[in-house]
Fold:
Amino acid sequence: MVEIQREHPAASDEAGRPDILAAVRKLIQPCIQCGTCTGSCPNEFAMDCTPRMLWRLVLRGEVDEIFNSRTFALCSSCYSCTLRCPRQLPVTEAMAALKQVAARLCPDRYRSSTAFSKTFMDSVRRHGRVNEMEFMFFYFVSRKNPLLPFRFSPMGLRLMRRGKVKMSLPGLGGNDVLAPLFRAVERLEGTP
Ligand code: SF4
Ligand code: SF4
Structure:
């Protein structure tokens, strides 16, 4: 069980305690619990609580249950739920907001996911798509654990046998084709 530190400085609940879920709750407040997001989610089979259940927990303010769940961490931002939600709620955005709160609350627990996401997106930004070799190299360097590549090697070999991983190195410097798009999103989100 993860000990949740309620340190978020933003809003507070009725009892004056920091309300770390305020921003996420605002996004999914009109949820009618129809379950369309769960039915649309390709990763639901691996989640310990469904997206619909997660929104119920958010609305009830069940902080410990939410951050001990793997559900939001398994969201791959495919946007199926967002496209199909009958209330047109920004479901994917709410999942991303939970990831951000979790990374702030439990940095040690989510360090690996944060590094994975950052190195993946850096590669996409540089080349317009992920370059698997570059991505793996920077991810392993960021984790500073020389044994880590060995843990991933059985999966890597399986992916290579199926042609899912290309063993090609990217061109020097990348083409920065998506850089304007990334900059626009950073401006919208107010992130560096
Ligand atoms: S699809 Fe939308 S309204 Fe339905 S449960 Fe999911 S978030 Fe709520
Ligand atoms: S965006 Fe995330 S939660 Fe929504 S359907 Fe895709 S993987 Fe599931």
User: Anything to note?
Assistant: The chain has two domains: 1-105, 107-192. The pocket of iron/sulfur cluster (ligand 2) is lined by residues 37, 40-41, 43, 51, 75-81, 91-92, 95 (CB under 6 Å).
